[in-house]
Structure formats: structure tokens, C-alpha cells
Hints:
The longest helix is centred in the N-terminal third of the chain and has 67 residues, at 13-79. This protein has helices at residues 13-79, 84-117, 124-129. The protein has 151 residues and is mostly helical. It has three helices and no strands. It is rod-shaped and about 95 Å long. Helix 1 (13-79) runs antiparallel to helix 2 (84-117).
Amino acid sequence: MDDLDGVGDSYDLDGLNKKSRRQDAAGKPRNALAAIEREILAEIASQSGRYGDRLEALLGELATLRHTLEHAIAHRRQDGVGHTEAWQTLNDGIAQYNRLRAQAQQVQHYLIIHREAMGFWNHDDVFRFYPIPAAFTPLPPDHTLRPPEPP
């Protein structure tokens, strides 16, 4: 116990405090760096959560719009050839769906980038929890619901 110089029944508290301050000063850069790293990772994780929330909202919008479009297409299929305005409205809905889908793909990409920044390299969970549905093909201009002819 070199730090405690016993003088009678008392100890050299000044010497002990000085040594303690030296140890704290030596450890501060490491502690400060670790605190900054934790703060950065916490912010990255928080942003990843926001991307996950945004992706979930977009997928909900896509599911609702897809259901509406499928119902409208099935209704038009029963009616056969319809009014040009009705077909244009369907194609407008399909274009909106495909734009939302592109946004969902972009947000999913950002989520993956943030996961990689945190050290996660396997993204199977992202694709499993946030599946992006297929795009819709716009309806042909002749207002029929037959498959497009091969080129």
C-alpha cells in the first residue's frame, strides 16, 4: 500500500486523490471514445427503427391499394370492355402502386445500409419481415384484359 502513507492513525488522502485523478485522466480518452461510439450506434439503431416503421407503413399502403386494384380489375374483367376513363383510372392506380413500391424498395435499401453500419451482414430477416410485393403491369391501351403479346 504505497499510496497510503500512514502517519499515526491518518493517511495521506492528498496523495491518494492525486493518483485517482491521474488514473481518471488516463482513462478519459478511452471512456469518451466508447461513449461516442455508443451514441453513434444508438443513433444508427434509432434511424434503422424509423426506416422499419416507414417501410411497414408503405407495405400497409401497398396492401390496401393492391386489394383495391385487384377488386377493380376483377370487376372490369366481368364487365368486359369498358369506358376509357375507367381504364385510365385503373392505370393511374397501378402507376401510384408502382411508385409506392419503388419507395418501399428504397427504404428497404436504406434499412439494409444502416444494418450494415451496425455490423449486421445477413439481411434475410429484412426480406422476410418486410416482403415487397410484385409490381403491377399497366393495362393495355385497347382495354382488354389479355396477357401482353411477346415481342
